[in-house]
Design a protein that fits this description.
The protein has about 300 residues and is mainly α. It folds into 2 domains: about 15-175, Tetracycline Repressor, domain 2, CATH 1.10.357.140; about 185-305, no CATH class. The protein has helices at about 5-10, 20-25, 30-45, 50-75, 75-80, 100-120, 120-145, 150-160, 160-170, 175-200, 200-205, 210-215, 215-240, 245-270, 270-310. The chain is flat, with a radius of gyration of 20 Å. Mean pLDDT is about 90; it is low at about 1-15 and about 305-310.
Length: about 300
């Protein structure tokens, strides 16, 4: 299989990188979400962990996520250069070479896995290593350019951080941590496909087989609705299993209902500016939905700890 044109040239071009460019390679917005969801998994896990161990382990998880982001950008330089929303990234603009980004990602990957293994446990290290390999190799190198199900299968990498956080405390994988994983896993397709409906021309130009480009927008809207129908009750499961309290249950039920309504709007309004507006509203609210679920998980456990300490 031949590599996309321009990759070898990018790898050996001179570097004009500044520290901020390497920071951008880590995809800091994705890193912040990883820290947030991993911290939620850590906080709700039964048992106790030393605060230093917790902070170092969360740092390692964030660095591992950043490393996979750098490896992703290194491989996708050709795609990023074509798409409008990614054309300003460090590699397409020539500020960082793909070779430098690859070396940077590999070093950070090894460092992050070893750090969390030494600080916490080797199950957490194995989960982090799997996350990096799955995102950088399985998703980036294979799935993204091969199938419109790329986001569905590849979503496993983005869904693992709360499971990693949970394992830092318990050194185990349990039903509760699997539920947290599944919430993000099932949330990912409607979230990204709503964006893909708005950016389908960009993805088509880059040759990425996203659902709207391969199966059509009508099929994409059906898939969005079906995944959201599964997501809404799944989001309430942490309350049903006792992992979360009643406030979480109410928030999950209400926001899940809103997600369903917005997904229905996206499904039923299919043409014109109103269709774009429906997809945009779903995409925007999906971010808020996931944030609220994990924020309430953190807040409930924080309040419980404060009450236990008499604060």
């Amino acid at each position: 299989m031949t590599e996309p044109a321009g990759r070898h040239e990018a790898a050996f071009a001179g570097s004009l990188a500044l520290p901020g460019d390497y920071w951008e390679l880590l995809k800091p917005r994705v890193m912040s979400l990883v820290i947030f969801t991993a911290a939620a998994g850590l906080v709700v896990a039964p048992g106790h962990v030393n605060i230093v161990v917790a902070l170092v382990s969360l740092l390692a998880t964030a660095v591992g996520a950043g490393a996979s982001g750098a490896l992703n950008m290194a491989y996708e330089a050709d795609i990023d250069g074509v798409m409008k929303r990614t054309s300003g990234r460090p590699i397409p603009t020539g500020r960082v070479t793909s070779g430098e980004a690859t070396a940077f990602g590999i070093v950070l990957s090894v460092f992050s896995v070893m750090l969390i293994g030494i600080a916490a446990n080797w199950l957490s290290a194995a989960l982090l290593a799997f996350t990096i390999v799955f995102y950088a190799l399985v998703y980036t190198v294979w799935l993204k350019r091969a199938t419109p199900q790329n986001i569905v299968i590849g979503g496993a990498a983005g869904a693992l951080p709360p499971m990693i956080g949970y394992s830092i405390v318990t050194n185990s994988v349990t039903l509760d941590s699997v539920i947290l994983f599944l919430i993000i896993f099932v949330w990912t397709p409607p979230h990204f496909w709503a964006l893909a409906l708005l950016k389908s021309d960009d993805y088509a130009k880059a040759g990425i087989p996203m659902m709207p480009n391969v199966k059509g927008t009508a099929r994409t809207r059906v898939e969005i609705l079906l995944y959201t129908i599964v997501l809404a009750p799944l989001g309430v499961m942490p309350w049903a299993t006792g992992l979360a309290g009643p406030v979480y249950g109410v928030v999950a039920a209400v926001t899940g209902a809103v997600m369903l309504w917005l997904a229905w709007r996206c499904f039923s309004v299919r043409v014109g500016t109103e269709a774009d507006k429906a997809a945009k509203n779903l995409f925007a609210f999906s971010i808020l939905y996931l944030f609220l679920l994990f924020a309430v998980l953190l807040a409930e456990r924080g309040l419980a700890l404060a009450s236990h300490l008499g604060l």
